[in-house]
Design a protein that fits this description.
The protein has 217 residues and is α/β, with parallel strands linked by helices. The protein is 38% helix and 18% strand. An eight-stranded parallel beta sheet has the order 7-6-5-4-3-2-1-8. The radius of gyration is 17 Å and the shape is globular. The protein binds pyridoxal-5'-phosphate. Pyridoxal-5'-phosphate binds next to β8 and α9. The site of pyridoxal-5'-phosphate has 14 residues, from β8 and α9.
């Protein structure tokens, strides 16, 4: 599939495309920018911070990978959406760095939906109780929605069920906690499973290898 056809397919569906450019050099990213793409996703804070000043300033940089608290400072001045809030401690660290930079940073709550053990992410009941117990306001972050990764398996039924679980978490949070129009993002779907994710209600897909080819490791 060409980039153009992927882009127009997603536009037709009203789904936002995050072009996942991790490991790719800046000239490769520039070429996709020149085809009209403005949102790029990276999974390492330092890699993102190195690329950002070398590329056009109207790029929206999304952090999609596990983020260590001591690395938040590298991206806090410019990052436009952090998909990977996977602990309350990280949430507080992002809030703090946002305030230090005079910004409000948009965030997604990453939930663990895959059966596989290794995945990062919050648990829904634990998050709700921790959130309700917060004693400070977190005025440096704006909650935009949820993110999740399905298991890397060929079992479509399992993947679909995991995406459906994430959608149900989104609905629950929207109903019980984040009752505002800002909370409108469901980030799910990658190169191998984005079509299923869209059928299950994704509003934002994170696609790397389908656009850029296999990763440079
Ligand atoms: C690498 C990555 C992607 C993109 O993966 P592809 O299979 O190359 O599309 C999406 N989301 C996250 C969190 C990633 O780390």
């Amino acid at each position: 599939m060409t980039f153009e056809s992927l882009k127009s397919h997603l536009e037709d569906k009203g789904v936002t495309l995050v072009a996942v450019s991790k490991t790719k050099p800046v000239d490769t990213i520039q070429a996709v920018y020149d085809q009209g793409q403005r949102i790029f996703g990276e999974n390492r804070a330092q890699e993102m911070a190195e690329k950002q000043p070398q590329l056009p300033y109207d790029i929206e940089w999304h952090m999609i990978g596990h983020l260590q608290r001591n690395k938040v400072k590298y991206i806090a001045p410019f990052v436009s959406l952090i998909h990977s809030i996977d602990s309350m401690r990280l949430l507080r660290a992002v809030n703090k760095e946002a305030l230090a930079n005079g910004r409000v940073i948009d965030v997604l709550l990453q939930f663990k939906i895959a059966e596989e053990e290794s995945k990062y992410g919050l648990e829904i009941d634990q998050f709700i109780s921790d959130f309700n117990a917060l004693d400070s306001e977190l005025s440096g972050v704006r909650f935009r929605g949820v993110m999740g990764m399905a298991s890397f398996v060929n079992d479509e039924k399992q993947v679909r069920g995991e995406f459906r679980t994430l959608k149900s978490y989104f609905n629950r949070l929207k109903q019980d906690i984040f009752r505002n129009d800002d909370f409108d993002v469901i980030s799910m779907g990658m190169s191998g499973d984005y079509q299923i994710a869209i059928e299950e209600g994704s509003t934002m897909v994170r696609i790397g290898s389908l656009i850029f080819g296999p990763r440079n490791t």
